[in-house]
Write a structure and sequence with these properties.
The complex is a heterodimer of chains A (215) and B (218).
Chain A (H helix, E strand, L loop, with lengths): L2 H10 L7 E4 L18 E4 L3 E4 L22 E7 L2 H9 L5 E4 L3 E3 L4 E2 L14 H7 L2 E5 L3 E2 L2 E2 L1 E2 L14 E3 L3 E6 L2 E7 L5 H6 L5 E8 L3
Parallel strand pairs in A: 1-2, 1-5, 5-8, 6-11, 8-12, 14-15
Antiparallel strand pairs in A: 2-3, 3-4, 6-7, 9-10, 12-13, 13-14
Chain B lengths: L6 H6 L6 E4 L9 H10 L4 E4 L11 H5 L3 E6 L6 H9 L3 E4 L2 H12 L4 E4 L13 E4 L2 E7 L3 E12 L4 E2 L8 H4 L3 E12 L16 E4 H4 L2
The chains are: A alpha/beta (215), B alpha/beta (218).
Chain lengths: 215, 218
């Protein structure tokens, strides 16, 4: 498995039967490929649907059926469409069990930066600010570093998407949880030593019992 | 009651400096032909309200590429290279709004409210210049209502009254925008005699004019 596959398969283990889950664009989308077959999970796409099904074959594409990343999708049984007001009522109103999002930076307090690099890149926040504030559990799925530069910081340096809202961080090296007393290292990938993880993390880690990551 | 209008009648409603809301999410659910007619009419100095900037050659992106837009209020502009470019050049001003806040600001206007209180954007750049109001010890941002002169929306099917239903994820911002402009023009792909009253998404009272794509595309 490559780094992204390790991350996606580990995040998928956080899903429970009946969960409503929103996956961000990019890496988080891969989580859908690893949902255990014995549970029923509903994926929301904030442009207006719950019940994302498998990617359509070319001859099944419907140009009016896309996800929030503008990719063609399908709707599974039990799924439905709604407008943007309802969609964000679901999100902001605390009805989404888990949201999985990427990050430019995430910090030991659970703050996230993911929408702007001033002077360089200004794509906009889209639905990310609402998702991070509104979902019951916020999981950040990201590579541990950006080409060797730590993404996990003591404090974010880039403008925030949200302040103190992140619950869990899953990388190809480790699983970390944000608690009131700081960032706890809970699991490490079998090939990653605790020393490596400390070295590649720009935040103090609280280390007690570190389990091996199941992927 | 006849709400049908043709291309010329649509173009006659356009004016320089208008604020125009356009439905669609990354151009899915955007009334493309109405955007094409706006490009053709070459109206200037528009303020556009839309979820995103579309693509370079799709959705409202075409108006940005053609330099007709003075200001864009949207949640995301990343897929239209012209938007970033015009913004850096200083010819386009962009107000980025969290997507849920954008939807709710539009809803507030259409529902006769002055604004709304939301936790989204607290402790971020979105908070700048806004009032923070505490409700039961929890802080919220005061976001103001957002309306427009014109709303352009896309429906799947309409009856002659202008009751509307939509198509899958092409629904998105269309129903709420239909409530929040002084004049609402809907592009419809089918015109039927009757719709099931239980299934109507946008009541006809919100819709001022209908453009029928098949008949008016000539």
């Amino acid at each position: 498995m490559n780094a992204k596959e390790i991350i996606a398969s580990r995040v998928a283990k956080e899903l429970s039967d009946g969960d409503l889950v929103n996956l961000g664009i990019g890496l988080p989308t891969l989580v859908a490929n690893y949902v255990p077959s014995n549970i029923d999970v509903f994926f929301q796409s904030e442009n207006g649907l719950i019940g994302l099904g498998p990617t359509p074959d070319d001859d099944e594409i419907d140009k009016n059926l896309t996800n929030a990343g503008a990719q063609y999708v399908t709707l599974k049984q039990g799924g439905m469409y709604f407008d943007s007001v309802t969609s964000f009522g679901i999100i902001r109103g605390n009805h989404v069990n888990i949201t999985v999002l990427g990050a430019l930076e995430v910090d030991a307090e659970g703050s996230l930066a993911s929408w702007i690099i001033p002077g360089k890149l200004v794509p906009g926040m889209g639905g990310a600010m609402d998702l991070v504030v509104g979902a019951k559990k916020v999981i950040i799925a990201t590579t541990h570093t950006n080409k060797g530069k730590p993404k996990i910081k003591k404090r974010c340096t880039l403008p925030l998407t949200a302040y103190k809202e992140v619950d869990m961080i899953v990388t190809e090296l480790a699983v970390m949880e944000v608690r009131d007393d700081g960032l706890h290292l809970l699991e490490r990938h079998p090939n990653a030593t605790i020393e490596t993880i400390i070295e590649q993390t720009d935040a103090p880690l609280i280390i007690n019992h570190v389990k091996l990551m199941e992927v | 009651m006849n709400k049908r209008i043709d291309k010329q009648a649509f173009i006659d409603k356009l004016k320089d400096g208008q604020t125009v809301m356009v439905g669609g999410f990354m151009a899915v659910g955007t009334p493309e032909i109405l955007i094409d007619w706006m490009v053709e009419a070459n109206v200037q100095d528009l303020t556009l309200i839309c979820n995103d900037a579309g693509f370079g050659d799709k959705g409202i992106g075409k108006l940005i590429k053609n330099n007709q837009v003075k200001k864009l209020i949207a949640s995301h502009i990343g897929l239209n290279p012209y938007a970033g470019q015009r913004m850096s050049e200083g010819t386009l001003s962009v107000e980025l709004v969290p997507q849920g806040t954008l939807a709710e600001r539009i809803r507030a206007f259409g529902a006769g409210l002055g604004g709304l209180l939301t936790p989204t954007g607290m402790h971020t750049l979105v908070e700048e210049g806004k009032q923070v109001i505490n409700v039961e010890d929890k802080p919220y941002l005061l976001e103001t209502a957002l309306g427009a002169d014109l709303a352009l929306i896309e429906a799947k099917t309409s009856d002659h009254y202008g009751n509307l239903i939509y198509d899958k994820t092409a629904r998105n911002f269309n129903p709420v925008m239909a409530t929040a402009a002084h004049e609402v023009i809907a592009l419809t792909h089918n015109l039927v005699k009757t719709l099931d009253p239980e299934c109507i998404v946008t009541p006809h009272v919100f819709v001022d004019a209908l453009v029928m794509e098949v008949h008016d595309e000539r």
